[in-house]
Structure formats: C-alpha cells, structure tokens
Design goal:
Four copies of one chain form a homotetramer. The first copy, chain A, has 363 residues and is α+β, with helices and mostly antiparallel strands. In chain A, 25% of the residues lie in helices and 22% in strands. In chain A, strands 1-2-3-7-4 form a five-stranded antiparallel beta sheet. In chain A, α1 packs across α3, α1 packs across α7 and α5 packs antiparallel against α7. Chains in contact: A-B, A-C, A-D, B-C, B-D, C-D.
Chain lengths: 363, 363, 363, 363
C-alpha cells in the first residue's frame, strides 16, 4: 500500500537510487494557487546538508517537476503528478550491500517479503521517499490556508536534551516561520545550542541519536474527524508512524497523563470573548471522542537514533555467512531536524483530509 | 467511518443505550471453528463489574448472537453478522445530560459535528462499542491459531505503579492464559496488588486514574506488513488510538529509545538453533521498515484517566449557560483492566489482516 | 467484499436461511427523518408473492428492526445497524442440495471458493440479500429528498414484450408513484398486461423468463461524479451488476447507439427558460466524461431468466456423480418485477454517494 | 478518484496537453520479468495513426519511462512509477475552445465540477489518459502469464457491420496474437474489410461511428471473484465503463438473454477429460454468483461514436453566448480499433486484481 489518505490522497513510488521519485496527489481542491519554487525551498529544509550539523553529506538539489493538475499556477482539481529526479546517487557505494543485511535496517525484512530488493541506498525503505511527502504537504498547506488552518512542527528533544520552556515563550514567529532559523529546529536559542553540541559529540564518536518532534495544528474548527475507527488521532498516529525511524506517538497529555488523576486532566468548558464555547485548558490536545473541539491539536512524535553508524559492522548475508561492512556511505548522525518538515507535511495532509471528509458528511 | 481493517474488516454500529450493538466481520477465512460461548466468556473479561475493583457497577451480561456466516460451528467465508443487546441501560439516569456538555467527554464534539446526538450514556462515543471489537478479536484469534500466531496483552502501569520485572519472570501461563487471574491484569502478584490498592484509593476519593497496557504478538513470520504507508506499526497505532481514552502508542524501545545512542539500539543478526537468521536483541520491537522480522512485536498503549468523576461538576449547556451535573451514573475509576482484552482484540485483528494482505502480494 | 459505496456505504451479511439478515449503513447524514414503517412497505414491494404473478410463494413478512443510528425518528449521523429476521425458511426443502450443484446457480463456485457452503436456499448467493439493499435505498431516498433528487425504476421489457411508448406517455404519477400499481411494474396498462400474460404462460410451462428495467435519476445537479475511474456510470454499472441475475447495463443510447452516427447523437447546448445552460436532447443519458450534466440520468439493466426451473433436473454432486434434483422449492418464474425496487435502491445509493463525494472536493 | 483496483492498483494523472502523463502501479507482485520495449510496442497499438483508417493524425511516439519498482528487468514488489511525455501537442489548435463548450464533450461538466479546466485537447477528459492503462495492462498481462491466464479483445461490431462467424472460426492465432494484423482488430478478413469500408465512408462525410469490442479471459481458475458487492462482473463492468466513450457492458448472453427462456440458458454440469467438473455450455459467461466457474469469461463493451465531428459546430460559451467552432483539431472517426488494447488492459488488471484478492482470503 503506497497510498496515504482518504479524500486527499498521496500515492508515491521510487527507490533511493532509482531514476526518480514519483508522486500523485489526488483530491486536491481546484482553484488553489501553488508556487512550484516555494516547494523547492520547502524541500531544501529536508535535504541532507541543509539542516545544520549531523546530516548526511549527500547533495541532492531536489527539484520537483509538476507534470499535471495545474494550469497558470492554479490547481485544476485533477490529480497532481510530479517527479523528483535522483541526481547525486553514488550507487557504487552500496555494492558491498547487495547480499548483506545491515542490522536494524529493512534489508532483511524486504528480502523476506519480496525475495528481491534494491540494495542501493536502502531502496524503497530509504527516508528519501519522504521528499515526496514534502510535496504532498506543500499542496495541503496551500489548501489549508483557505480554511485558516496552520500547522507547525519543531524539535522538543534530542537525546536527553529537552525543551522545557512553555510554548508561549518560544521564538515561533508567525505560525512557526522562525523555526527554520534554528539548526536543530528548536525555537529556543539556548536549547537549540545544547542540542547542536550533543549531536556534534555523537557525530564525532560515529554514533547516532534520536529525538522528539512536537506538532501543533491551529485553527481547525470543532467537529472535524470521524468517531470510532477514523478518529482524528488515529489518522494522525498512522501518518506519523509511517515516517522512517518513528517509534512513538502521543497527543494531549499523552504518556505523561498516565500519572495524573482524572480531576487534574479535565478541560472545563468556558465561554470565549465572543461568547463561543471553548475549554479553559487543553489537556485533551484538541480532540474528544476522535473529533476536534476547536482547540489546537498537539502531538508528539518520537524518533529512534538511525541505524547506520559510521563504524565497521559485523553482520550476516543472505546465506547466513558473517560479513564485515566497512564504515562507508553518507548518513545523518541525527535525522530529527530534517524530519521536522516531514512531520509538518504529514500533519497538514491529515488535517486537510479530515476537513474534506467532514464536508462530505453534511446535507 | 465505522469500518476497521483492509482484508479482515470489522464494521460496527450501536449507541450505548440503543436497542443493540451490531457488528459485521468481513474477510473471515472459511473453515475456522469458532465457539459462540467462548466469545461470551471473552466478552465477560471486558464487562463492567467483572474486572476487579474500580469498574462500573452496570451489569450487562453481554451475550453475542451470531446471525450469519457460520454453519455447524464453522465459518463459511461469508460475513459474520452479530448483535449484542443492551439490556441494563438506565437511560433515565442521563436525562439531565440532554443539553449539557460533560467536560472532556465527546458530548460537545458530537454536537458540533452532527447537530444532534444521543446523550444517553455517551451514545456512540461510549466505550460500550468496544464489546463488538472483542467479537472481532475472537474470530481473529481463532484464525491466527491456524498460523501459530498468539497475542497477549497485560497491564504494565497504573498511575505511578509500574511493572518492572522482566517479561521472563511474569506469570503469563501458556500464551498469557494466566493474565485473567489477576484483577488488574498485571501478571505479577505484588505489582497487581499495589495497582489494586492505588485504584481503591482513587475510587474512594471519587477520582479516576489511567495506565499502560503492553501487547505482544508472537509467531508472526518475517515479511508481514506493508512498506511506506501501510507499515505494520502504523496499522497497529491506528488500531490502538481508536480505542476510547487512549492517548499514546509506541513500540520496541519507543519513547525510551530517544535517550539511547544508535550503537546501543541496533539488533545484530545471528543464526538461531535451526540455522535461520534472527536477531540477538529485539530493541526494534519485531518490525523493520514497516515489515515484521520474525521476532515478537511488542507495543505499549497509554490510557488517560477516564473523564467522568463521581463528583458534582459545573459545566455549560448548549446555550452556554452554566449547569451543575450531580455525581451520578455508573462509571469506572480505572478502565485499564477492562481495556486489556480490547487491546488484545485490536492487535489480533491487525495481525490477521496483515497476514491475509501478505498472501495477496505473492504469485 | 460485502460493502458497497464510498461515503454512503452499505455493509451486509446474512444467508437466505440463517437466523437473520444484518446490515449497517455508514455515512448517512444526520438529521434526516426516516419512517421505519414506510421501509417495511417498501420491503413488501420486493417480497415474494407481492409483486403479482410469477413470483415465489415464500411468505416472508420482512420486518426491519433498526438497532442504532436514530433518535426520535431522526438519523444521528452515526451508523444505522438493522436486521431482518428470516421467518418462513423451510430449510428441509433444501437438504437434497447439500452436495449437489444446481446448474447455473452459485453452488459450484461457492464450493470452489470457500470449500464449505450453506446450501439452504442458496445461502449467501440468494437474492434474499437484496432486502437489505431496499433498507439502504430507503435511507438514501430520504436523504436525496433534501437535494430534490428523485429516482424511479420500471420494467421496460419481459422476454420479447417491450415497452415502446415514449416516457412522456407513461403513467408514472408523481416521480414514479404509480408504478407500483402495475403487477409487472410497467407503467403502461396494455404492455403490462401483455407482460403478465407472457409470464403466466412461462410459469405454466415450468420455465422462467428475464427482462429489462429502466432507471431514471432526476434532479441531480451538474458536476456530480468523478472523472476517470470513479465515473458516475462506472459506479452505477458496478451497483447494477452486483444484483443477482443481472447480465447487462447501459446508459443513454447504450448498445443502440452503436448503430448511429456521431452527428445523430450529439446533444446541442441551449439555454433553458431561466437562462441556464442545458442540452436540447439527452442521448448522453445525463453524463459526460463521468460527470453529470444536469439532465436526467437514464440507464437500463438486463436480467437473465432465473436458473431454477420447476422441472426435474439432472446434474452432478461434489464427487462428480450424477444426481437428479426433483422439481421442488419455491421460486419465481420472473424475478424482474420484484427487482424493480432493488434497482431503484441501488441507483439511490449511488446518487447519494456521489453527491456526498462531490461536497468533499470543494473548498 | 484517480485510482483503479483493490490489490493491483493503477493511479494516474495527466492532462492531454500537459507536460506528461504519470502513472503508479501498486501491488505488482515481485520477481516478474517485464520488458520496457514491449510496452512501447503495445502502446503503439493504441496510438493515433497506427490502428488503420479512421484514426486521428496526431503522431505521438508514446515512449514510457519506468522510474521505479524494477531492478535488472524484474519487478521489485514496490510501486512502479512511470511517465509518458506529451510531445506532439499542438495546444494552439485549442485556444478557440478556452471558453466554449463542445457538445457531448466533458467541457461543460468539468467546468461545473471544478470551476476551472484545462481546455487544451480535452485536458484530463481526453482518451489520451488510456495510454497509462496500457502500461498498467502490460504489467498485469506479464503477471497473469504466471497463472496461465490470457486475455484477448477484438472488434465484433462497427456501426451496423457485425462479426457473425463463431469464435472457433476466427483468426485469433495463439491467444489472440493475430488480432493486431487486422486494421479494425476484427479477426475475420471479410468482416474487417467491410468495417474498414464503413469507417472510410463515415470519415469522408466528416462523421463518426461507434462499435462493440468483445473481450475473453481464458484460464482463470474457478473460485475467483467476490460474492455480493465485489462480483467479478461488477469489477469488470466498472473497469469498462471507465473507458472514454463506453456506453454499455454485458457478459455471457447479456442483453440477448432477455429474450430466452431459462431452460435454454442453463449450463449443465459435465465432467471434462480429466474428470473435473465443468459446464457443457457457457451461456453464463464464466461467472456464477459473482465468482468464476473455470470457463472463459466473455463480455462485450459498447462504444458510442466519438463526439468530435470534422464539421463546423454551433454551441454556447461559458456565458451562454452562441459561438461557432470551426472544423479543426485531429480526431478519430472511429475510436474502436484503438480502444481494443485498452479493453484488453482493463480486463487484465481486473483479472489479476481478483486473483490476488482470492489469495488473501484463504488460510
């Protein structure tokens, strides 16, 4: 299954070292202005070598070519087909991997599933596929603007370094615009610096480290999301768990809420300045019973350290023989900063999909 | 959207205080023996008043009536239609809620989505719907036996009381059979007792408390799950996040893995006694690149304390007027033990669905 | 796959001689008044022994029990669960069929697919399942009223007897209300009589005969339907081809248009009395490029004669041995009149589904 | 909805005069050898100017570029992304259509649905999209070979010229290989000639003409297809009705069976040479109760004459003003021969999809 979403749907194809990545967006509303060059800028935020320290040295300009679904800079309502060529792929770097299974990579599981695999750069399992999600996110974000919905994502933890300052004190700029000025995508100068130092140390030791990205969706009206099996949080969890290296998801008080009493967690209803019903607090993370309540949707996404170390590794090949993999390839020591726009894109696609679904339900 | 799954699909209907809950299971393989009475026994494990202290005093015998899809105790391959009548519903208990929004319940969000709602006992948003998932899980577990796949779930945390003993020291019995002997579904006598004491204290204060359920799927072969958007963990996360009161999900090292280095987390490949490739450790939780690797799939599900307190509550009604809700109704102070078979059932459905999907992909 | 539709979805279960038929309607908009008793009246139009001559003598009162999704006669937006009990099933009539394959029935194909089957009354393959579609159609028709969309179906051919009078001369009443007064559901007294005579003759000879039902959807606005793979006509064809005994579908000029020149078939654009663009003729049957153009959607559905004859039949059993099946059971000699409300119901569900889908696509 | 299929799924994008057509095939089994150049040859059979008389003079070499999902000429099991560039598009030919609605084209309905449209060459509504289906069909046909399933399609009617010779007397070659030698794709020399003469006459008069394509699927085992809503014939009908200009579908005896008695139509069971159960005749067209019976699946697809005439046409523009469209553009006078590989491709995709689905249902 290489399609994501219900009404707004992204279908992707492409291996890391094949000729190109290919995507098709279905369900994009007509009449939305989307600027191709701003997609390239957004892609650059995910690119290796752009998101500060700790990222792979692979240089891929990541230029998207839009092949359909637009006329004169506006969407047609028909599907958006697009490709991103793979240009800086050094496939010869990977030939020693043709028959070996790298530990904690998907080499072995793809082999067991398909009996054949593209071993170059992780093939389809490579996080390179997420470049296509950035394009899907770009169109979704453009459509969400028409609903006054904004999505932002930022790093709140790298290893043991946590962002502890409250949201209101962060340097988010207008709807998160300032986040990209921070190398680690942590909008607090001091914490960002400490994260950067940690990643530098980890990189020098040839090791890797994970982290947590927090994502906030502002402006969703109350009443979005499906009860029972299409709960907004279920769609969001599924979206985030589909990102490479993600191992956990929670929203609202999440895992931390386990230690609290019910009486500490309830969100009392109050009237806002305009006399509309809202909640005083937002422990619930903007969702009740799978449906948005009009408050910000707040969730967290946990990333493990990526599996490729810059060290020699002993492992097995397809025949069960021991092989030694040299310390080669170009890899991130911390993928979290590069994943920030991916998390933002996935959240944008979920939000737009849910908004469009909600429209279908009413007479 | 009231359907769950791709090949093995459960569709449900039913409000908490309507005439009955209704379910249809589609995609159940033919020729599997399923015993109706054992489903009732399994339903009893979820029933209020059965799972030890802290549960609602509502007495609902929960008898499933199978209406189709079986002949002579065997499945036909055609859809299984079934109903569970609602018998002990005291709807008059809820009339004071017809126009009021209980804090942190779905009253407000259903009102905003549909403009009309069944206010009795939470209507469709009530966890009563999960009884149908137990039936879906029963059939899935029966089919999984043919694949030698077993699923178990148990409580590993209530409030601040955590199970710390390693898995190998727990009283799981054969594939978790012993778990049901423990009131809190924590298969360690001492921890279970401390959990029970905590819940008792919380209940006496009219408050509520949450917890964590761990779920383990044993016996899945390598190669199950879809890469990219239908990753096994994404399906599992979506399943768990669709359960009432669930706020978080992780698998493998999950959120705890954020603090570890990559070098500590990798799972080296080794040969097992039969010369098959497996991994020495299982930090990955049985999945790489969205596809199972043959090791146990291990995940955690976080439950918030349920929102209904046994206390008077001040809130707003549909017109924004203040109302006081008396301390009434019959509610759990800790829903976690009753949720254990629900988590198990959802995991079983995901596992069977993924197994059936994997079959479709091969020539 | 026992689910039909995308947004408005009907899932069904139930064998002909099992305890009950079970259905769940998902995606029904909230706030629509639906009268349970009028559904029973509609069900009666499909019942054996009601639709004039030529129908099975099985007497099944077909009483629908709505179990969820409604409060005070209004829909809640949550799924509608319902059952229809099987009451007049004489299963002992079918025991001689436990191992025999009736020619041109689904006995053999179900056996080959599932390895097990419910041989009583055709099991899941019986047209009895269509009673559930009538319920799905009832709710859809109620919702369509809010859009001013009306659906009508009537018999236009039985064997060689064709309705030749133009639509405008038929006794349709208000939106087809008069159709049910005609035994064969042909709203032209003379043709209906000739059809009835033909069916009588066929019945007396122990044989069966097929026919054609024409269906018209009025009031759909222009712009409904999806281009390319979800074309309105593709959804409609799929709906109709899923009805028992249907062998053909066409719309607009259909198969007859093959003999015409393009210059005879085009529908010129003109302005209507209100100055809106419409077409002078409707050779296209209301659809261009898969999307409605605002004119009536007109389609035809071809039914074969049903396979069960009131004659002794020689056939094979599961082991390839010859068996003689006596002339037993209760069967229609012409199913077409009873199928008219089924065709109407399927068209209504397709129309509502497409309307709801169209809503989701716009900002 | 721009995706077709359930397990084997084709998603397409692309306007007739945009930069390229884009497709993604999902669910293609791994390890199948597919030759890119043979896809180009197959594409040529659909190309304008190749399929004999009566076709548009647009010269489009239609070269497919495979961008993913293959390694060393074999499929990987991952999605196949591919593009076909639009090279011979004379967009300036269409500027007079920017605001005019051509009769019986999709200009008006796209305008009503999206409020914006690509007027060049019919945009997304152009039959040019079917080139992508040929690619989807190519991969499906390659996979079907592994199941010994063969699909053939040929012209059986153009206007009033019908193929009347029985199947066994046709020049089909091995599994239809000879069909492509006939200009009209009618594998009977005399009938093909008469069809060609008819098309020539129609073309000279600036008019257009339709026809019927018959499609046969050989080698499908018994037990393929889903009962009730995913009936094999429903999937097939939906596939065919999604092709441009198709107005009707039937299978087995189809519309002709309406005039027959049940006693003439039944297919008696007999034993074949190997002692397996089969049917003596095949009036059913290979399907009972939605499931294949092991006999050939036989269906017919009716095409209307295409709407564009080589004559001046008076019509309306977006404002309801009269406009005269000159006799321009490059168009087919009979699209049927070019549609033969499209029908074959759609049938192949349906057959493979159903085979893969059937595998998922068994333990």
């Amino acid at each position: 299954m290489n399609t994501f979403g219900n009404i707004y749907r992204l279908t992707t194809a492409g291996e890391s070292h094949g000729p190109a990545l290919v995507g098709i967006i279905d369900g994009m509303p007509a009449g939305v202005v989307v600027d191709r060059e701003s997609i390239d800028s957004y892609l650059a935020l995910r690119s290796p070598g752009r998101a500060g320290v700790g990222s792979s040295s692979r240089k891929e300009p990541d230029h998207v070519e839009i092949l359909s679904g637009m006329i004169d800079g506006q969407t047609l309502g028909t599907p958006i087909g697009f490709i991103i060529r793979n240009q800086d792929a050094h496939s010869e770097d990977y030939e020693h991997l043709a028959h070996a299974f790298r530990p904690s990579h998907a080499d072995f599981t793809y082999h067991m599933k398909y009996g054949i695999r593209d071993y170059r750069g992780g093939g389809r399992a490579s996080a390179r596929e997420t470049a296509l999600r950035i394009v899907g996110g770009s169109f979704a974000l453009a459509a969400l603007l028409k609903y006054n919905v904004r999505v932002m994502a930022f790093t709140t933890q790298i290893g043991s370094v946590r962002l502890t300052r409250p949201l209101t004190e962060l340097d988010l700029g207008d709807q998160g615009a300032n986040i990209w000025q921070y190398t680690m995508r942590c909008p607090d100068r001091d914490t960002n610096e400490r994260m950067e130092e940690l990643v530098q140390r980890v990189q020098e030791s040839g090791d890797t480290i994970g982290g947590v990205i927090t994502c906030i969706i502002n402006g969703l009206p109350a009443g979005i999301g499906e009860p029972v099996y299409g709960k907004f949080q279920a769609q969001l969890a599924s979206a985030m768990m589909s990102i490479n290296a993600v191992k956990g998801f929670d929203y609202g008080m999440g895992f931390d809420g386990v230690n609290r009493l019910g009486s500490e967690m309830n969100d009392p209803f109050v009237l806002d300045h305009q006399g509309h019903i809202t909640t005083l607090t937002n422990h619930s993370g903007g969702i009740q019973g799978g449906i948005t309540n009009g408050r910000a949707v707040v969730c967290r996404v946990a990333f493990k350290p990526i599996a490729t170390l810059m060290r020699e590794v002993e492992t097995l090949d397809e025949n069960g023989n021991k092989v030694i993999l040299p310390a080669r390839g170009r890899h991130d020591s911390c993928a979290v900063p590069r994943a920030v726009p991916v998390v933002q894109s996935m959240a944008a696609m979920v939000a737009l999909d849910a908004l469009l679904q909600a429209q279908s339900g009413k007479i």
